[in-house]
Amino acid sequence: MRKQSISRIRSLKFNAVMNMILMSSSFIFPLVTVPYVSRVLNPSGMGAVAFAQSIISYFSLAALLGISTYGVRACAQVRDDPKELSRTVEELLIILAASTTLTFAIYMLALEFVPRLAGDKPLFLIFGTALWLASFGVEWFYQAIEQYGYITIRSIAVKLIGLILMFAFVHQAADYRIYGMIVVFTGYGANILNMLRLRTFIRFVPFRELNITRHFKPMASFLVSSVSSGMYAQADMVLLGFLATNHIVGIYQLVAKIKTMLAMAINSVVNVMLPRLSYYAKNSREKYHDLLVKNIDFVLLFASAGIACAALCADAIIDILGGSQYRTAVLPLLCILPALLFVSLNTVLSQYLISSGHERQYAIVNFTGLVSSVIYCLILIPPLGAIGAALSCSLCELTALLIRCWYARDFITTIRKDIQIIPAPTSAATATGIILLIRQTWWPTHALPQIIATGITFTILYTAMLLLLKERTVTTIIHCIRTR
């Protein structure tokens, strides 16, 4: 056992930087690929791939049994004990092998008997490989031992290969299945490396020493919550796929991609906190409290800016990423932007519920979110199409946030005085208003100059307002820069 490799846990600053690089790559690569494939495959081709990707994500959620979340906590809590860590990982892999086999069998039956899926069986078979790759990627293990340097380098390398493959093989609308293969490779190909590298950290123990059943009870809440959470996050796309054409799905998938990219950028630091929060929950309540407060401040700061900038540049963003075929995506984009704030705050509150042992409440919230998402989609999608899907996404995330706040009300009461709620939204609204006034006299006419001008002007105005209102995060950063 290479005990030293596991015990070398990097600082939160290093992990945050690595995760920001990773999230930046997840933001930058789509900026390169989406404009190209959107124009080559057209909305119908993009819609077909997006629908298949959403369907396989549902099956993957069932196969993973919540281990993608539960595994992080379970391994983080025993990461200082190499033997117990190895045992935990092996037990979880055995559970995954059984669940994935059963889920894949059901998936194959669905391809035979569900007309919407059987209509393009080759594409859905391609995405079927993602089911196995997702289950055995053990990403939860590397997150638990905070190997964010490895995760980042590996992911960027796979994305670069995928980028080369895309430009080499996707040239016309009929190549949408090839694009599907590349999507599977870039999304899950790195998981093969995860399994090959696992023996660097894990020494598998004899089967007789395993106790698989000990995971069933704590996993139950994570199963309900993870499946429900993942399903309600994809419900808009899946139900839109069944209720509308591939063309409308293609329009909406561009909106969903933009929302996802922005949310990933906002959550780049927040997502690295769960393993450390789980550790602090058992060892230092003061550090646990401070870390959650910083998370909320960070979310308010960057979500407010992200929503404002995306709203100001909605037409330009759609024009660059999709082109003239996707102009009807502007209004759905504006309707989905509030979800950015709700998603990010939901992430922070979910971290609190998970790391503090409130799995049951976490599960109830996500199940309620799934039910509300289905209801909103069934009401709004038939009359409004892509706009209805966007509205249902924002409403669903707001509903989940309100319920999470209710369950975390005692904790929120204790930290309320430490959270700066006013500065970020106020600064973003002020900066947006000033830019709208400036636009009345002059503004660039082309899309890219519009985005650049908006970004620079907004950053200057936003930062100035934050300093004026003495927002803690920005003033701390400025102070650190000055002292250096």
Tell me the layout of helices and strands.
Elements: H1 3-7, H2 12-64, H3 67-77, H4 82-113, H5 115-118, H6 121-135, H7 139-144, H8 148-169, H9 176-188, H10 190-197, H11 216-243, H12 246-266, H13 273-283, H14 285-312, H15 314-321, H16 330-336, H17 338-355, H18 359-384, H19 386-407, H20 409-415, H21 423-439, H22 447-468, H23 472-483
Helix pairs in contact: 2-4, 2-6, 2-8, 2-9, 2-11, 2-12, 3-4, 3-11, 3-13, 4-6, 6-9, 8-9, 11-18, 11-19, 12-16, 12-17, 12-19, 13-14, 13-17, 14-17, 14-21, 15-22, 16-19, 17-19, 18-19, 21-22
Organism: Bifidobacterium olomucense
Subcellular location: Membrane
Membrane topology: Multi-pass membrane protein
Strand portion, in percent?
under 5%
Secondary structure category: mainly alpha
Form type: globular
Mean pLDDT: 83
Distance between the termini: 41 Å
Question: What is the tally of beta strands?
Answer: 0
Instruction: Domain count, please report it.
Output: 1
**Low-confidence residue ranges:** 1-7
Q: How would you sum up this structure, described in words?
A:
By secondary structure, the protein is mainly α. It has one domain (3-419). It contains 23 helices and no strands. The chain has helices at residues 3-7, 12-64, 67-77, 82-113, 115-118, 121-135, 139-144, 148-169, 176-188, 190-197, 216-243, 246-266, 273-283, 285-312, 314-321, 330-336, 338-355, 359-384, 386-407, 409-415, 423-439, 447-468, 472-483.
